[in-house]
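PROTEIN DESIGN WORKSHEET
SECTION A - STRUCTURE
LENGTH: 166
TOKENS:
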């Protein structure tokens, strides 16, 4: 079906025009983290926000005021959890997880690779992506909490290591 009635179109247009600036304000209040490189928790919240916006604008199943309350609740909850994860390490570990060392000093850590369901080919691809043609200058490869693979060169200076423990 291509068209139901003008009332539906007006509902979508008016709701979108009202919701858009309010959503921007809410996201600005919630902080940059809401739109940053995401871990699983942030990704799920983003999908939930998108789903709610869709239900408000397209379906009309949720009236605008109730939809805004739902969006605000999700954003406040996300803020509370991220604030707690910064201040309490047990919350951080449960929400984000920890980086996982997959390759270190010339050897692949098979147990960690199996646990994280990462194949050797994926690690090799990450190394190639950094412009390296071999593992000669690679000290470690880490699966980060956002799902990306970080490739670290062999250390040439002193300082605190960013490589997680095995």
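SECTION B - SEQUENCE
RESIDUE ASSIGNMENT:
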């Amino acid at each position: 079906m291509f068209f139901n009635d003008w009332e539906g179109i007006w509902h979508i247009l008016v709701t979108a025009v009202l919701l858009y600036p309010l959503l921007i304000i809410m996201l600005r209040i919630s902080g940059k983290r809401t739109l940053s490189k995401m871990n699983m928790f942030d990704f799920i919240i983003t999908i939930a926000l998108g789903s709610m916006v869709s239900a408000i604008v397209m379906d009309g199943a949720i009236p605008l005021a109730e939809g805004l309350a739902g969006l605000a609740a999700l954003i406040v909850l996300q803020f509370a959890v991220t604030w707690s994860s910064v201040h309490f390490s047990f919350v951080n570990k449960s929400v984000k997880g920890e980086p996982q060392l997959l390759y270190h000093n010339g050897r692949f850590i098979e147990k960690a690779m199996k646990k994280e369901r990462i194949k050797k080919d994926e690690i090799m691809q990450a190394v190639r992506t950094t412009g390296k043609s071999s593992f000669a200058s690679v000290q470690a490869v880490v699966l980060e909490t956002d799902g990306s693979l970080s490739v670290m060169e062999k250390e040439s200076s002193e300082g605190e290591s960013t490589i997680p423990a095995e």
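SECTION C - NOTES
The helical segments are 6-30, 40-59, 64-87, 89-96, 110-116, 120-129.
The chain has two domains: 6-95, 98-153.
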